[in-house]
Specification:
Blueprint: E1 7-16, E2 19-28, E3 31-37, E4 42-49, H1 54-64, E5 74-81, E6 88-97, H2 99-103, H3 123-132, E7 143-144, H4 145-149, H5 151-157, H6 160-165, E8 169-175, E9 180-186, H7 189-202, E10 211-215, H8 221-230, E11 234-237, H9 243-252, E12 255-258, E13 266-269, E14 274-275
Parallel strand pairs: 3-6, 7-14, 10-11, 11-12
Antiparallel strand pairs: 1-2, 3-4, 5-6, 8-9, 8-10, 12-13
Helix pairs in contact: 1-7, 7-8, 8-9
Length: 277
């Protein structure tokens, strides 16, 4: 179910070879979301996102950035209520963390930037991923190429908001048999993945062993970073992975698949998990 504020109507002029016409169309909503810590009172991040599954987004972001490791460390999340008029502000979420978690926030401030792609490539980032890596190399589960071929159509069928607006990304979680387990959409590719992982975190389903994540568009360093921390062994994308994403996948034992379209894909790492014929 799409959030009522996830898309807005706008008048658009369509120009064609034989003239032009005006009609109403739908646009994907893009609004800021402020993640605000209750104690100590401070802003952790501001990200541009599509409204909907906001709590999933916040949980996934905090988990992916190493602020929380377990469900009990996230004490509570709620939308901010303006004390002056009692109105709920759905662009601000107040987060309460456990005391032990809050104590380490000063050392984590380097993670928080005001955009929707918060990964930073450097020695410190790579060391953090190594410490938090949850991808099992000893898992011998495999996926058939025929199963992978089917994921693109299933991802598109789950993109209800994309069908309305044509203007946002999606991330979906499948099992090794190609069954769609969960999907999320957002104007930002990284936000869609944060929402997906956040929903799994809140449901107590991490690490995602035996899971396949597919993202629309390309697969970047940040996409791989988030999947590695969540324990995802197979990461697929509609377009190409970046060079750094492939390097990361090879180092951490992730199967990286790109250009997954129809009955064809490119396999960049982790071929041992794929049955090609």
């Amino acid at each position: 179910m799409n959030h009522p504020a996830s898309h807005t109507r706008s008048r658009v002029t369509i120009v064609e070879e034989n003239g032009s016409r005006t009609r109403l169309d739908y646009l994907t909503t893009e609004e800021p979301l402020e993640i605000r810590l209750v104690e100590p009172k401070k802003t952790l991040a501001v990200t541009m996102r599509t409204p909907g599954a906001d709590f999933d987004l916040v949980a996934g972001f905090l988990y992916g950035e190493g602020v929380i490791e377990s469900r009990d460390q996230l004490v509570g999340m709620r939308y901010c209520v303006d004390l002056a008029d009692g109105q709920q502000r759905e662009n601000i979420i107040n987060v309460s963390l456990g005391e032990e978690t809050s104590r380490f926030l000063p050392s984590l401030e380097r993670h928080f930037f005001t955009n929707s792609a918060c990964g930073v490539c450097g020695k410190a980032s790579l060391e953090t991923i190594r410490v938090r890596n949850r991808v099992r190399r000893d898992d011998d589960r495999k996926v058939r190429a025929e199963t992978l071929y089917s994921l693109g159509d299933k991802l598109r069928s789950a993109q209800g908001l994309f069908k309305i607006t044509g203007g946002l990304h999606a991330a979906a979680l499948f099992d090794m048999d190609g069954n769609l387990l969960r999907s999320r959409e957002d104007v930002g590719r990284h936000n869609a993945l944060d929402k997906l992982i956040g929903a799994s975190f809140l449901a107590g389903e991490l690490p995602l062993e035996g899971g396949i994540v597919m993202v629309s568009g390309r697969s970047s360093f940040e996409i791989l970073q988030k999947c590695i921390v969540a324990g995802v062994p197979i990461v697929c994308s509609v377009s190409a992975p970046s060079s750094l994403a492939v390097t990361l996948a090879r180092e951490f034992g992730v199967t990286s698949i790109g250009f997954l379209r129809g009955k064809k894909f490119n396999l960049y790492s982790g071929a041992e998990r794929v049955i090609a014929s």
